[in-house]
Amino acid sequence: MMYCLVINSGSSSIKFQIVDPESSATDEPLASGLVEQIGEPQGAINITVEGEKSREELEVVNHTQGLKRAFELLDARGVGPSQLDFFAVGHRVVHGGKLFSEPVLIDAQIESMIEDLIPLAPLHNPANLDGIRVAREILPDLPHVAVFDTAFFNHMPPAAALYAINNEVASQYDIRRYGFHGTSHEFISQQVPKVLGRDPEHTRQITLHLGNGASAAAVHNGRAMDTSMGLTPLAGLVMGTRTGDIDPGIIFHLAREAQMSIDEIDVLLNKKSGVKGLAGVNDFRALREMIDDGNSDAWLAYNIYIHQLRRFIGSYMIILGRVDAITFAAGVGENDVEVRADALADLEVYGIKIDPERNAVRSDEPREISTDDSTVKVLVVPTNEELAIAQKAAALTQG
């Protein structure tokens, strides 16, 4: 059996999984790990192999040292690069700009092109690039594949992709709606026709990736028609710490009246807003406990979250014209019964009916939670971006 090593490199951490591309969405990977607090005095490497966890605490000076040590720990457990047959290394890259609409084999030129896109994703692409360079140095004989979060949305209709901003300015600075979570939305939208037994070429659906970061997408016969995130992952739905859509005039108002700098506003909107800014927590389990305790701030935060979610669902119903399925995925979407029920409450006139008993079932399997007579089918589909990356790497390297 051959495996794909999937790497998601962040600025101070590296997540990785060893994945069989032939596995199902709900199968556990053979091994997974997290190198955390890179560059800090006290870091750690967490390894899970077939459900058995281990942790080593040490100073992780840089990405190179962290990944090399992680591979040594995997080797010691019999699942490292020296024991297993890897057919490729798949790398998550957040921003592909207008350049990348498909996975690509990484070489020096591709590295340079990813580097050129850093101004569009200054927090993410440099870290992704660090992981690529380190992994290519350690595993030079394997093909390395870049899979881009934005790729699925690369060919959206111009009416959805472009902003009503001066053409020359937009062209010069590559301003458009790129969208994110694309690997997840594509994966989910491919699973839905299988669950429903429908032809994917004749399925119109709304996919909802609801985690700490959250986004919605309208998918028409397998192609993205619209998505909630924009030039950056700040736009769209209310998120754990991000505002989602706001009047851009708020930025000017804060700069003029509060004398806040661009960097201060950036931190405010990305890290101190959303559910956390409204209620003080960004974990929905903690938010639910606060609501149950009668906390008014938590209740308000939840209602703002649901209101914005319903706005996007409604707008995508109009864009698609006919909706065959609405699907919830990611941490909140897969686990929060109330969010699913409230997001689609009182929509029977549009053919949307959730079955309360089906909705209450906890399961790791893809499942339908709508009633039998619901015209629009409502589903919960666990997303698996690592499996999707492994499958794309396999398609590119193995044909």
In whole angstroms, the N-to-C terminal distance is 17 Å
Number of domains: 2
- Counted by DSSP, the helix tally is 15
CATH superfamily of the largest domain: ATPase, nucleotide binding domain
Catalytic activity: acetate + ATP = acetyl phosphate + ADP
Enzyme class: transferase
Binding site for Mg(2+): 8, 385
Subunit structure: Homodimer.
Task: Describe the model.
- Helix content is 38%, strand content 20%.
- With 399 residues, the protein is α/β, with parallel strands linked by helices.
- It has two domains: 2-148, Nucleotidyltransferase, domain 5, CATH 3.30.420; 197-385, Nucleotidyltransferase, domain 5 (2-Layer Sandwich), CATH 3.30.420.
- Strands 5-4-3-2-1-6-8-7 form an eight-stranded mixed sheet, with helices on both faces. Strands 11-10-9-12-14-13 form a six-stranded mixed sheet, with helices on both faces.
- Strand 3 and strand 4 form a beta hairpin.
